[in-house]
Structures are given as structure tokens and as C-alpha cells.
Design goal:
- This protein has 322 residues and is mainly alpha-helical.
- The protein has two domains: 4-185 and 291-320, HUPs (Rossmann fold); 195-284, Tyrosyl-Transfer RNA Synthetase.
- The protein contains 14 helices and five strands.
- The strands form two sheets. A three-stranded parallel sheet has the order 1-2-3. The chain has a two-stranded parallel sheet with strand order 4-5.
- α3 (52-68) packs across α13 (262-288) and α8 (127-136) crosses α9.
- The radius of gyration is 21 Å and the shape is globular.
- 43% of the residues are buried.
- The mean pLDDT is 96.
- The structure holds adenosine-5'-diphosphate and tryptophan (TRP).
Length: 322
């Protein structure tokens, strides 16, 4: 039997290159050898979203992004979290298996507290429980995610182990799958690319706007003539993600030689990225013009996802005495 790979993306902003290379692309590659279960983490997004129209739009946006980048909905199950209520039911049962000490350690919550956020919701605090339910409801074997999500997958394992320890083997233990070569895609300021840092390269910008974003990448202030270090440069770090080995060697040599301005390197990055994104961008624009078709795909995916989640939930409910 094929192993099952599951991952989710929050509809909390415009999908960016970090989401693609860190989550979507590895997940799509995996769906060749595994059964792909990919969903839009709409309930997780409610920890930050406060605008209903925007949330609705972003759910479609993330779905169209998966489809434009190559997800085949006849082979891979694609749904949105609120359409599978079994997951939130399982989350309650898991919340009785998660210690407060475990949740206190979760990065998202700790960050909010450290930053002195005025409103830290219970939803943000229990976020790892809902994520554990997402993973465990579908008997997932592998969870392809960026490095920042590894802790959450480990917490899901912790909750599953505790439940299994008390009630017998009811839940399958998942493994995180982290692609080291793209573990952290840098943003335009050199930090991890993230919607929360306003440093993203959105995936489907028109070419002119894409170029403008790439031209805004922060670099040091070396002059055109000076030799430069490719290994500490954000432009080069992004270039590496799109270039062949030969292209990387060539650009690295020109960095070290001097005589190459950052503007030139950025232009070369733009050409590569724009080439790679041109046809997905067309597909994305076609899909976004037909939102009802996207909704039909999500509804069909949810029906299929619910069959699996129902079976797990029945097993767990029975196992715990309900
Ligand atoms: P963001 O940080 O922009 O809010 P999300 O938390 O919604 O992104 O991430 C969705 C998925 O994309 C997760 O699996 C996450 O690990 C991955 N991801 C996000 N940003 C990056 C990045 N810069 N590099 C690698 N993977 C990333
Ligand atoms: N927490 C993940 C993120 O912010 C999104 C997510 C929710 C997820 N549930 C999941 C990822 C289950 C993998 C598996 O990126």
C-alpha cells in the first residue's frame, strides 16, 4: 500500500516562493510515490484573520496555487479544513492528551508572548492540537513541511503516543519530512521569507511587479567593481534555488571576480524565476477567473477526506469509551 503524505497551508496571505519551495513543491513531488492529502488550513488562519471576505478570497487563492503548480485533483485529495468537521472533533479528544507544559513550548505561542502581543487567543495556544488532529485524522505517514513546522509534527507524535499508551494503538505516528536544501528560503531582507515579516516574493505577480520585488532585495553596499561573497548574499541564495549547478558556479565566479553589480545579479535572478513561473501564472489566472470550479474541486476533496477522517474518529471514539 502507498504511504500517505499530508500537509496544510494557511490561507493567511498571498502564497510566496517560500511556501512553494518549502512546502508545495516537495509535497507535489511526494504525491508521485505517496497518496497526497493536501489541505487549506482555514481554521488555523482564524488565529490571525479578522476579515471574512479576505479569508474567503485567500482560501480560493491557496487552492488555485496548488492547482496551478501542478496538483492533480483526481489523484491527490485537496480540501479546506472547515469542510471536514471530524478534525475539530478529534482535536478535542487530543486536547485531553496534550499537557499544558507541552503547549507552553510551542513556538507560535511563545513568540506572541515574547513580542508582548496584547491579545493571545486560546486558539493560538492550542494551535498545535488542531494541527495534530489534521495529521492524525488521516493516518498520515509523512508530513512534508518547512523546518519551522517540525516542532508541531513532533507534538502531534507526542499526543498520538500518549493516546496510544493509555488506550492501545489507535493512531498512526507520522514523520516530518524536511527538505534540507530548501529548509529556509530567505526573503527580500535576508530573514526567513514569511508573510509575517513582509519580505515575501509572491508567486504570481505580473513580471514587472516581480522584477520590482526582486530589485528590492537587501544587499551590502559594495561597489560594482568590488569582489563579492556569493555565500552571504540573499540574491545568490535565491538564485541557487532556481539555477542549474553550472549557472550557480558561473554566477558565483563572477561574484568573486568583481565587476558584477548586485543589480545585474538581481536581473539574472528575475529572468530565471520569471521563466519558471510563467506557465503556472497563466494557469493560476485562468483558475481564479472560475472560482466555482475551484469550489467544486474542494467540495469533492472534502467528501473523500471525510471518509478517512470518519473512520479514524470512530476508531478513536470507540477506543476511549465513547
Ligand atoms: P508564512 O511563514 O509565510 O506564514 P506559512 O506558515 O503559512 O508561511 O507556511 C506554509 C508552509 O510553507 C509551511 O510548511 C512552512 O514551513 C513553509 N514555508 C513558509 N515559509 C518558508 C520559507 N521561507 N522556507 C521554507 N519553507 C517555508
Ligand atoms: N501550521 C502549518 C503552517 O503554519 C499549517 C498546518 C496546519 C499544517 N495543519 C497542518 C501543516 C498539518 C502540516 C500538517 O505552516
Amino acid at each position: 500500500m502507498k504511504r500517505r503524505a499530508l500537509t496544510g497551508i494557511q490561507p493567511s496571505g498571498t502564497p510566496h516562493v517560500g511556501n512553494w519551495l518549502g512546502a508545495i513543491e516537495p509535497a507535489l513531488a511526494l504525491s508521485e510515490s505517496c497518496e497526497g492529502y493536501y489541505f487549506i488550513a482555514s481554521y488555523h488562519a482564524l488565529t490571525t484573520s479578522r476579515d471574512p471576505e479576505l479569508l474567503r478570497q485567500r482560501i480560493l487563492d491557496v487552492a488555485a496555487t496548488w492547482l496551478a503548480l501542478g496538483l492533480d485533483p483526481t489523484k491527490t485529495v485537496l480540501w479546506t479544513q472547515q469542510d471536514v468537521p471530524e478534525v475539530t472533533e478529534l482535536a478535542w479528544i487530543l486536547s485531553c492528551m496534550a499537557s499544558k507544559g507541552l503547549l507552553d513550548k510551542a513556538h507560535a505561542f511563545k513568540d506572541a508572548v515574547t513580542k508582548g502581543k496584547k491579545f493571545v487567543s486560546a486558539g493560538l495556544y492550542t494551535y498545535p492540537i488542531l494541527m495534530a488532529a489534521d495529521i492524525l485524522a488521516f493516518d498520515s505517514d509523512l508530513v512534508p513541511v518547512g523546518r519551522d513546522q517540525k516542532q508541531h509534527v513532533e507534538m502531534a507524535r507526542d499526543m498520538a503516543q500518549r493516546l496510544n499508551h493509555v488506550y492501545g494503538e489507535l493512531l498512526k505516528l507520522p514523520e516530518p519530512l524536511i527538505q534540507d536544501s530548501v529548509a529556509v528560503v530567505p526573503g527580500t531582507d535576508g530573514q526567513k521569507m514569511s508573510k509575517s515579516y513582509s519580505n515575501t516574493v509572491p508567486l504570481f505577480l505580473p513580471p514587472k511587479k516581480l522584477r520590482k520585488v526582486l530589485m528590492s532585495i537587501k544587499t551590502d553596499s559594495k561597489t560594482l567593481e568590488e569582489a563579492k561573497d556569493p555565500d552571504t548574499c540573499t540574491v545568490f541564495a535565491l538564485y541557487k534555488l532556481f539555477a542549474t549547478a553550472a549557472q550557480q558556479q558561473d554566477l558565483a565566479a563572477r561574484y568573486r571576480q568583481g565587476g558584477l553589480g548586485y543589480g545585474h545579479a538581481k536581473q539574472e535572478l528575475f529572468v530565471l524565476m520569471n521563466d519558471r513561473l510563467a506557465s503556472p501564472r497563466d494557469r493560476y489566472n485562468e483558475l481564479m477567473a472560475r472560482p466555482d470550479d475551484i469550489r467544486d474541486i474542494l467540495t469533492d476533496g472534502a467528501l473523500r477526506a471525510r471518509v478517512t477522517a470518519r473512520a479514524t474518529l470512530d476508531r478513536v471514539r470507540g477506543g476511549v469509551g465513547l
